[in-house]
């Protein structure tokens, strides 16, 4: 009995740890160097790195710009009067500097680019002179001539435009009855120049007289692909009342054009557009994210009271 207890109480001297311990080899260890020496030369040749694409370079540039130093007014919100005072103080030595209003919209995918026309109470820049060419016949052609269109004609005008005789025209309008006839012959000529009449831009219409009158007395504004709208709204030497009036007038026009304002004028335009294009869906609303006021040399200041 005592001998069996002694065997049970005997200290164990056998080690259960394996003598072969697996450890990670460093790249400079002898084992790793010998393995690389035995490897084939082809496996050691580095693959050529592909040059970054334009999209990748643009993405890197945007990230770099986002990380860069921002203006002191980047997160500052001011009233319209205070923002004008700050910009005037910055541009005190440049009385001909221009106020620029920037409106950023949350343009959803597939939404049309915001665009419109406005007649400011006091223009910041000389109004652009338009030379208008109209494809119309009969009574609509007479109305276009009375409204002030520079070149008016029917299908006989197609050959002259194709030959380049009216390249100085800045706007081309067309009636709904002639658009199919001219699109087959002039689509590849006028399309790349941005002059081809289209229903989306409103240059295909039966109200030629009204469009010509609006074109001659207004200024066109258009957003970019990201939905950002820029518009000069005054000069530094303008009285503050004129600048404020221009800014409020332009913001009201943009809100109406982007669907952010529901008034009698906007509802009438929506009903008229719906009657013309019954098969098309309703234009989505581009919500206004922020409104900034800047100048030639001054930073952009976010406006909080308009």
Annotate the secondary structure layout:
Blueprint: H1 2-9, H2 30-38, H3 41-44, H4 54-67, E1 77-78, H5 80-90, E2 98-106, E3 115-118, E4 132-135, H6 139-147, E5 151-153, H7 158-162, E6 171-174, H8 179-190, H9 208-217, E7 219-222, E8 228-235, H10 240-257, H11 264-276, E9 287-294, E10 301-303
Helix pairs in contact: 6-9
What fraction of residues sit in β-strands? 15-25%
The biggest sheet amounts to: 5 strands, mixed
Beginning-to-end CA distance, first to last residue: 101 Å
The pLDDT mean sits at 79
Q: What strand order characterises the main sheet?
A: 1-10-9-2-8
Low-pLDDT regions:
14-21, 276-282
Regarding quaternary structure, what we see is single chain
Order of helices and strands: HHHHEHEEEHEHEHHEEHHEE
Helix tally? 11
Number of strands: 10
What does this structure look like?
The chain is an alpha/beta fold and 306 residues long. 37% of the residues lie in helices and 16% in strands. It is built from eleven helices and ten strands. The strands form three sheets. A five-stranded mixed sheet has the order 1-10-9-2-8. The protein has a three-stranded parallel sheet with strand order 5-4-6, covered by helices on one side. The radius of gyration is 35 Å and the shape is flat. The model is unreliable at 14-21 and 276-282 (pLDDT under 50).
What key attributes describe this structure?
306 residues; 11 helices; five-stranded mixed β-sheet; single chain; three-stranded parallel β-sheet; alpha/beta; flat; 16% strand
